[in-house]
Amino acid sequence: MAEREARHGGGVPADPRGVLRKGRAFLDLFWDIAKPEQEVRLAATENLLRHLRDGGEDEELKYALRRLVEGLGATREAARPGFSLALAQVLQAFEEIPLCSVLEQIQEKHNLEKVKKKLVRNAAFGNFFGVMALFQSGRLIKDQKALLESIQLLQQLAHHQTHLRDLPSKTLVDILSEVPETVFEEVLFGILQADLTSAFKSPENLHLLLVGMQKFPGVLKPKKLKKLFGSPTIVNEENIPRLVELLESAAKSEKKDKKLPSVGLDLLQVSLKEGAFELFWSEAVENGLFKEKSGPVSYMCYRLLGSALPLLSVDQLQMVLKGRVMQHYGEHVVTTQLPDRFKFAPEMEAYVDKFLTSCDDPERQLAVMIGFSTLTNQGYPVVPSVWRVVRHLQPVALQKYIDWLKDMFLKPDLGCCLDFSTNRQKQNQENKNIAQHKIARLRKWIIHRLMSIVESPVKKEESLVMDISRFCFFHAFFETKKKTSQIPETNALMSEPLDEQAHSLAANYFFGLLQTLNTLTVLGDTAEAAALREKHIHGVTADGKLWIFHLVEYASELLSSEKYVKAVKPFTKEQRDAWERSLQSVKNLQKKKSKSDSAKLFAFQQLLLLMAIHLFKNPSETMDLLSDLLNCTERAFSKEPKKKKTENAEPEWVEVIVEILLSLLAQPSLLIRRISNSVFGRICPNLTKKGLQLILDVLDPYQDQDEESAVVVVEESEKEKKSAQDTDDDESEDSSDDGDTEEENDSEDEKNEEVDEDFRSQLINVLQAGNAVGEDESDEELDDEAMMALDKSISALFAEQQKRIQAKKDEKDRIRKEKILRRDFKIKVLDLIEVFLSKQPENPLVFDIIEPLLQVIEQCMSSDSDKQEIDFLQKTAHIFTNSLCRAKQYCKRVDVLQDDLHTFVERLVKKACKHTDSSVALYYFSASLYLLKVLKGNVSDKSPALPVPLSKKQTDTIPQACQLLSTGCLDVERVTLIYQQALTQFLSKRNSALTSSMFLDLFTRFPIMCKPLIDILVKSITAGARQHQQAQACLLLQKVLPLRELKLSTTKEEWEELIRESISQVTESLKVADKLRVKAEKEKVARSLELLNFLLKTVTQQKLHVELMELDKVLVALNQQESIGKSARLDSLYWNVMRWLNYTKPKKEKTANKPVQEAEPLKRKKKGFLPETKKLCQDSRLCAASSLPSSPRPADHHAPGSWTCRAEAEQRTQELGCFCSAFGFLPAGGSVLHHMGKGKGNVMLVAKGCVCPWLFMCLCNVFSQMA
């Protein structure tokens, strides 16, 4: 051990030659350490340590240290940290290596005084990363001498700020934070005293002092601080100006990193420790840093605010959150709404989120939430109403925050808000009641904030959710007349009553809250709640009752307390009677306990409650629907026997429900849409054909839309009301842009407006009546009275014309809006179709949906291509494909419908054949396959026989044969005829909408159809309309023949005859193949060869008796055409086929020598690194120079050549090989090859088994210059 330390300390240079003889594996580790990929660097470091530990010698360790020290100053940036980390790991693993000796090597190798000027940067980084390696090894703190020298080296490096910036000072701080107090006092304080004394001269020195004060309070006491710079504290009135300058400098230096300077956070902590935080914040931050309106300085203040939150008390938080920093932050958030502006709000949200996560004090949490909620822009808080940080609040803090929100809603206190207005808002202020405007905006935010708390994932109890829901409902539809303890919402009176618009806004938000409650998971920790959550039941409380039911009960309580509360829109007697009937019906339904009708009972309760609570919002529009629903409820659950249906009989209750749901879907409410889908999903087992037809009539593109238009108009008015209520005043700044757009549209309409001949004739008549235009030209001018009369006439005429133009525009706009709303209504109705298909896939009514969906798809394919139309088409196609055609379940009771379904299949296939659009024909064809699946999957009362009798051997070999070839209710002969006609048309008609993928789907899904249709495929190989159809016939036949079911359905003789006939048809097709000039002809030959490959493989493997002489002749003749050889694909397919006929592909002969061209002069070799061949034969050259024999090492070696033509290169290569073999440079079996490159004269020679690559290269140079 002592000898090893002496060797390392002596600085004896390592002998690399011994290391090199070990092999390149060890040396390659140092190359990998310098790679830019971090994973490669780490793996190389681990391998190096393993190699040195497992048997590394002293020479290897010395070499490793030398290489690692050299790499610290590498030019590549990724290499420096790699070598630094590797050096740190080596020093940590081998503690016997003295750190001082390594530091000496670093300073000697990267000497800043002796290095050239252009290499100063690399030397500076070499020293810096060397110190980093010593520090990361974990041994620097233990070695006081090395620690002292490292600190001094870092102090020297601090002067090279142009290269290292503040890296030395940061590293010095990191080292200082790890040093024990005794070591700092005894060793480091002396050399750091100068830096500590000049703390107020640079941010780095101030940071060093602040870290020392926090780390070593026993050393840097106030007395010692006073000796250092004349003040016992850092934060005082005298030092404030200098601190502001240093913070500004630090902020600008961290501009690119977008993070808080470390000196700022440490200064904040020291100010708290010294009890001078209020002075620091008010004087240094708010009155000092904000004097200079600089972006980096402002962002540093915002980061200081966010970082200070976990460190402050409640009083300090309140002070900070009401100061100028918060106000500036609010202005920044409001004025940086454009997408290309830097937004600090996400970063501030992260600070608040981190604080609320780590803070356990509810009072401090509440102070922060209230502070940010009172930062308002004209009354509207800056933070979003759906601020997600609320999820970290403690239950106590959450409850207090909700109480504060409700108090602010009832008694808005603008005085406690930190309110501001932007410059544009100040300029646009009109003579209006600013206070009322601010209160309205604040209340709007609060009601949305309360609603979002219910939606947030914060842990909450049912009582809290119910409290918020009652509060929102009460102030949306009721007002307090007198306080009462029975209704908690009446205990606090409003300081400013709500106007009609505020009530309407609160009502809209309340129905949004209902939507949240409808999808809310069950709350609570009880066993009942856990059981409901396991069943994935939503929208109910722990007792199993709907949230909306509790709110209806609360509304009933309010309506019965007329002495204490009054409704904003009082009910009429008829409306009140409907309300009472609805509640009584719900209670009656809850008393019924029938497992068979449980879904039906729940659906009626949900719908009754929804319609009842909608009486508060739209009483006049809801009354008719509610009345129909109540009557329908009585009929649906009445015990009277059903009457026989007559023409004038009343519709079934389910049909009435469907009409009500369609009416509800016309309203722009997500809550209504989801409840309608939920209700329909529960009643769809009772759906009748007429009820389904009501839904399909809405989707019918060819039916008159009169009734639908009436629904649409209602929906449009509702949307306009909602948009008018939800529009925020402060967001009206973009209205000018919208106005400009409308004006541009108007101008475009005017340009496109055709000239109105009636208007032109009227204008001419007016001018003629005023004598302004006449047949006889005269120089007489009109008098003033005539001119005035003429002006009035012209003005009146133009005014009337403008009204007509505007009326036309309004009519166009109305039609366009109605079209959009009608399409939106149809998209909603599609939800009902999707629900029915998913809930009732086995219902026979599914068959009635097929054609209406196909009509929608067909009509959308040929209509406008706007986004809404595309969405409608995509949704319809998705439902048709996934919910219908690919459904795993289908109707199992089609015995009565067999004939109708077969007729339906025929009708669908014929429409697919007649269509001109392949994409539409695909949907018709897919529908026919769905019906085939239904027919085949049903078991008929009559047990059908198999279409093909199976032998006993086949049945015993494959037990599933009967199941695979069963037909169910399918009439194979009838269906076969249908698809034979379709397949014949596809292969005989030039422009057919059918495609091969359709029939391939038919064959793979229904193999029973293969045998009846395969004869058409075989004949069409030659009888197809064109080459394309013949190629498709070959393709389909190639896919069909390997099917196992086809083999099962045929006898051995039939199978052999099928193969024979197929080969014969392909032979005849190849006979007429011309010179393959047309792409279609090439495709036909390629498909024929692919089919032949399978056929010949089958003949060979199954040993079938098929005559192949004619085919042999045709194929041999086909090879005579040059087109086969020119196409790589055809050539490969051709010889794959010929392989089965015992032909082998001949090798291509070498081309004849081309005339020798003049050789280009040799290119001058580039200077630089040695090629790998010279590196590998380094030992051979050394041995030759010292007259020592070199041991032969046969290997493959490369050398360049410079011949201009292939023939000359081949000749010279042969001569070179003979020469090398004759003189023993190549062993037995060795050879010389050449590879021609793309460039002129670019030849590479390869010596196989060369024992002396250096002499081989010399010979290559000699032969390259020979002409």
Q: What would you report as the Rg, rounded to the nearest angstrom?
A: 45 Å
Mean pLDDT: 81
Most strands sheet: 3 strands, mixed
Fraction of helical residues: 55-70%
How much strand?
under 5%
Beta strand count? 8
Q: How is the largest sheet built, in terms of strand order?
A: 2-1-3
Distance linking N and C termini: 67 Å
Helix/strand-derived class?
Answer: mainly alpha
User: Helix count?
Assistant: 59
What overall form do the CA principal axes indicate?
extended
**Poorly predicted runs:** 1-17, 704-753, 775-779, 943-961, 1152-1194
Protein name: MYB binding protein 1a
Pfam families: DNA_pol_phi
GO molecular function: DNA binding
Subcellular location: Nucleus
Explain what you see.
By secondary structure, the chain is mostly helical. Helix content is 64%, strand content 3%. It has 59 helices and 8 strands. The strands form 3 sheets. A 3-stranded mixed β-sheet has the order 2-1-3. Helix 48 runs antiparallel to helix 49. The longest helix has 56 residues. The chain is extended, with a radius of gyration of 45 Å. The two termini are 67 Å apart. GO terms for molecular function: DNA binding. InterPro entries: ARM-type_fold, DNA_pol_V/MYBBP1A. It is found in: Nucleus. It holds the Pfam family DNA_pol_phi. This is MYB binding protein 1a.
What is this structure's SSE topology?
Elements: H1 2-10, H2 16-20, H3 24-33, H4 38-55, H5 58-71, H6 79-93, H7 99-109, H8 120-136, H9 144-157, H10 161-164, H11 167-178, H12 181-197, H13 203-215, H14 222-229, H15 240-253, H16 262-273, H17 277-286, H18 295-308, H19 314-320, H20 324-335, H21 345-358, H22 362-373, E1 375-377, E2 380-381, H23 395-410, E3 418-420, H24 423-427, H25 434-455, H26 462-477, E4 478-480, H27 500-518, H28 527-534, H29 547-559, E5 565-567, H30 573-591, H31 598-613, H32 619-636, H33 653-665, H34 670-683, H35 689-699, H36 706-726, H37 735-752, H38 757-769, H39 784-839, H40 847-861, H41 867-885, H42 898-914, H43 918-937, H44 952-957, H45 961-964, H46 972-988, H47 996-1005, H48 1010-1023, H49 1027-1040, H50 1044-1048, H51 1052-1071, H52 1079-1102, H53 1109-1119, H54 1122-1126, H55 1128-1139, H56 1172-1176, H57 1178-1185, E6 1195-1201, H58 1206-1222, E7 1231-1236, E8 1243-1250, H59 1253-1264
Parallel strand pairs: 1-3
Antiparallel strand pairs: 1-2, 4-5, 6-8, 7-8
Helix pairs in contact: 3-4, 4-6, 5-6, 5-7, 6-8, 7-8, 8-9, 9-11, 9-12, 11-13, 13-16, 15-17, 15-18, 18-20, 18-21, 22-23, 23-25, 25-26, 25-27, 26-27, 26-29, 27-34, 29-31, 30-31, 30-32, 31-32, 31-34, 32-33, 33-34, 33-35, 34-39, 35-40, 36-39, 38-39, 39-41, 40-41, 40-43, 41-43, 42-43, 42-46, ...
